[in-house]
Amino acid sequence: MNYPDGAKFGPARTLFSGHPKLEIARIEHVVFTKADCVLAWRIFSDCDRWPRFSDSYGKIEWQGVPWALGSRLQIELVRPVQAIQRRVITICTPPRCVAWINHVMGVTMEQWVLFDPYPGGGTRITTWIEFTGNAPGVNVLELREIIATFVENWFSNFLTECDRVAENF
């Protein structure tokens, strides 16, 4: 794999393989909250709160036991485009991590969210997403920017909620 900017390694760069049709992009994002891991997980895992973190969500529906291995989460997206996201939980060890495979509009994503105790209190929350596929009318660099902006906004609002609840806890 070679980065388009010639670098040998590094986070948050689009990767290209020798296969001209295969492009894989990676996004990483880290936030810190005053909430401990248990509280941060409790807020994160409450999907009824997610519309507060992003106005992109419509209906959110579980198929199976929420957060159990193999359970499915169907998320209606209402903006910037209307689409249905389908997630399958691949790993879930509350309150430390969760991972899923996500399919939406011809794009397949793997996402991990990690909750690590932070020295001195609080939690370091890290997420990374790798994705590939062809969304109609959007190249991988544009798609990466759309997803990165969504993740940044979602986690900023999530962080605000975690800190608010932690301060009142």
Explain how this protein is built.
- The protein is α+β, with helices and mostly antiparallel strands and 169 residues long.
- The protein has a domain at 14-48 and 94-167: Alpha-D-Glucose-1,6-Bisphosphate, Chain A, domain 4 (2-Layer Sandwich).
- Helices cover 24% and strands 40% of the residues.
- It has helices at 37-44, 50-53, 140-167, and strands at 14-16, 23-33, 57-63, 72-77, 83-93, 97-104, 107-117, 123-133.
- A hairpin with a 5-residue loop joins strand 4 (72-77) and strand 5.
- Helix 1 (37-44) crosses helix 3 (140-167).
- The protein is globular, with a radius of gyration of 16 Å.
Which structural class best describes the helix and strand composition? Answer: alpha+beta
Terminal CA distance: 47 Å
* Count of alpha/pi helices: 3
CATH homologous superfamily assignment of one domain: START domain
Order of helices and strands: EEHHEEEEEEH
Number of strands: 8
- Main sheet attributes: strand count, strand direction, barrel closure: 8 strands, antiparallel
* Overall 3D shape: globular
Label the CATH architecture of one domain.
2-Layer Sandwich
Query: Roughly how much helix do the residues carry, as a percent range?
Result: 10-25%
CATH class bucket of one domain: Alpha Beta
Q: Find the CATH topology of one domain.
A: Alpha-D-Glucose-1,6-Bisphosphate, Chain A, domain 4
Rounded to an integer, what's the Rg over CA atoms?
16 Å
Give the low-confidence spans.
Answer: 7-11, 13-20
Q: Strand order, biggest sheet?
A: 1-2-8-7-6-5-4-3
Assembly form of the protein: single chain
Summarize model confidence as the mean pLDDT. Answer: 88
Strand content: 35-45%
